[in-house]
Structures are given as C-alpha cells and as structure tokens.
Specification:
Length: 153
C-alpha cells in the first residue's frame, strides 16, 4: 500500500489526516511504506524494547513484529497535538485488536503512541502498551461442577 503523500506533513495540510493514513499503513502491516514516514535518523520504540534507529531498522523491526501476527486493527479514540523543541508532537490513544496466526483475537488492548515530528517526518515514535495478552496462552474454560468426563480407555 504505497502512500507517498505520507512522507511529509505540515499543520497546514491536515496533520490529522496524515496521522490516520499512517495508522492505516500500520494496520495494513506495510512496514516499507510506514518506514518512509520516518526521518533518516528517526527512532521507533515499542514498549520496553530497544529503540530501532534509522528507516532500515524501523522497517526491519516492524516487519519482524508483523510476521508474528495475522492482522492488526487500531480504533483511535483520541488525538492531541502539541509542540516539542524540534516541531509538532502527536499523542494518540487507541484500542488495538491483534489477530494471532491461529485466527484467535485479543480483546481490545489500550495503547498510547507519541509521535514527535521534525520537518514533516517522524523523528521519534514510541508505543506505550502491555502487549502480553497477545502472547498469552488461551485460557482453558473449567468444566461445570457436577459433570464428569467420560472415561477413555
């Protein structure tokens, strides 16, 4: 999913539309196109993982994560804008649902992302969330009391 207009953004050309397009790339699991939104020396950090630095590492990091899942869907619930010393900053609250390779899905997981922009590109992108439910083993449902399993030989 190539979206070249995502390479840069300014407040004048609807940064929120750009942001929604960026999350569409993430949900499409298009690491190549998403990485193009980063500055050459941009950083990406997911939770407590080591940061990826530069477009190539960002792309590789995203690709490795996307390879572990079947699908991803964000429902953005809030966007806030501000400034940092090098430009605009966006804070994005969302609920993310992950589909595992076996077809099972997580419950909606709360996530907050911070995107610091510089010269219309992502300089720093940080994702804050507890991703552990994605990797949790399915819970066994206990058998109701009073029922016995048939004996097997």
């Amino acid at each position: 999913m190539e979206m070249p207009h995502l390479a840069t953004t300014t407040r004048e050309n609807s940064a929120d539309d750009w942001l929604m397009g960026f999350f569409q790339l993430i949900d499409a699991m298009d690491a190549d196109a998403a990485a193009q939104a980063f500055a050459d020396d941009g950083t990406f950090r997911f939770g407590n993982a080591e940061p990826a630095v530069g477009r190539e590492q960002v792309r590789d990091n995203m690709s490795e994560f996307f390879a572990m899942i079947a699908a991803l869907d964000h429902r953005i619930t809030g966007v806030w804008s501000g400034d940092w010393e090098q430009g605009e900053v966006k804070s994005v609250e969302a609920e993310a649902v992950y589909t595992r390779k076996d077809g099972s899905r997580t419950m909606p997981l709360p996530v907050t992302s911070t995107l610091r922009m510089r010269a219309g590109q992502i300089q720093d992108y940080r994702i804050f969330m507890d991703i552990s439910p994605l990797f949790a083993l399915p819970q066994e449902v206990p058998e109701p009391a009073g029922r016995r399993r048939p004996a097997t030989d």
